[in-house]
Amino acid sequence: MATNKSYYDILGVKRDASDDDIKKAFRKLAAKYHPDAGGDEQKFKEVSEAYTTLSDPKKRREYDQMLMFGGIPGADFGGSGGRGRYTYTTNVGGDWSDIFNNMRGGDGGFGGFDFSSIFGGAGGARAANRPTKGSDLTMSVDVSAEEAFRGATRKATYRVPSTGEEQTLTIKIPAGAVDGGKLRYRGRGEYGTNGGDRGDLVITTHVAEHPVFKRDGADVRMELPLSIYEAALGATVDVPTPDGTEVRLKVPAGTQDGKTFRFRDLGAPNVKRKGSRGALFVTVRVKVPTMLSKKERDALAALRDADTRDYREEVMRYGTKR
Fold it and tell me: Where in this chain does the entry annotate a coiled-coil region (predicted)?
């Protein structure tokens, strides 16, 4: 190593260079001087020694302190102690042939730096020969709301990109399947290389909306229309459930629009908790008739005139005071 050059000079970076700047500089010089790429082995040793020190925060601090006192650490390569005021040996516990062999084997040599990422060679060849798992393949399947509630099976055919072969499997759509849910079939994806395992086949379920039931995971929500008479007087109503049965709801007299009733375990099966189900939430929607016969209008008018309740008391207290 030249006695008048610091490690920063060798890498061509400033004293305040960031870790990323140092790594980029080393990457460029290593690709240029690496022996496997026909470069200068001595130059490669120099840039490697510089990187080993400057890429390690503790060694870099010590090195900078030595520079402050006027020395040029590393000027006496190998630590013989003859030419410089300070010596600074960074060969990490082995000779250079060992380090080169490690790098060629894809094992790095300087702080875990992967030389196979910047040039081809024996290390890259060995990495290329390692067993590699195949990539995952993806596809989607459309499911009706009823199929999602009760579960279903579906045959699907897909093509493996690397070979072009078509493969068929039976998809088991679980009861309680949700829109956007994932079904993973292990070992049914792309083929691996060098004896590596196959990837997986990942299937996304797209569940159609139901005209009555709305999903919230395993919970199911629905709206139940009631007439103003049923809401006012109370009623007993048979309500459908997702599994095709009915449940009887007793609506209390005076039920208001937006009132929600909860039925435990009458929602959809919970795919995350086998054997359990969500709840069914029934929200009342009071319907006001839009067309009245003369008889109905007269009857309602009589009820209105006889009604002495103040329905807007809470609102009118904030009105203009006269």
Answer: none
The interaxial angle of helices 41-54 and 19-33, nearest 10 deg, is 170
3-state secondary structure 126-146: HHHCCCECCCCEEEEEEECHH
d(CA 32, CA 7): 17
313-319: long-range pairs with CB below 8 Å, 24+:
none
Question: pLDDT digit string (tens) for 236-252?
Answer: 999 999 998 999 999 99
The angle formed by the CA atoms of residues 129, 130 and 135, to the nearest 5 degrees, is 110
22, 20, 23, 45: which is closest to 35 by C-alpha?
45
Q: CA 43, CA 77: separation in Å to the nearest integer?
A: 12
3-state secondary structure of 270: coil
CA 134/CA 84 separation, integer angstroms: 55
Strands (E), 144-218: 152-159, 166-173, 182-185, 201-207, 214-216
**180-221 per-position pLDDT tens digit:** 999 999 999 999 988 899 999 999 999 999 999 999 999 999
Say how many Å lie between the first and final Cα of the chain, rounded. 98
Using CA atoms, how far residue 253 sits from 61, 83, 230, in Å, is 81, 103, 8
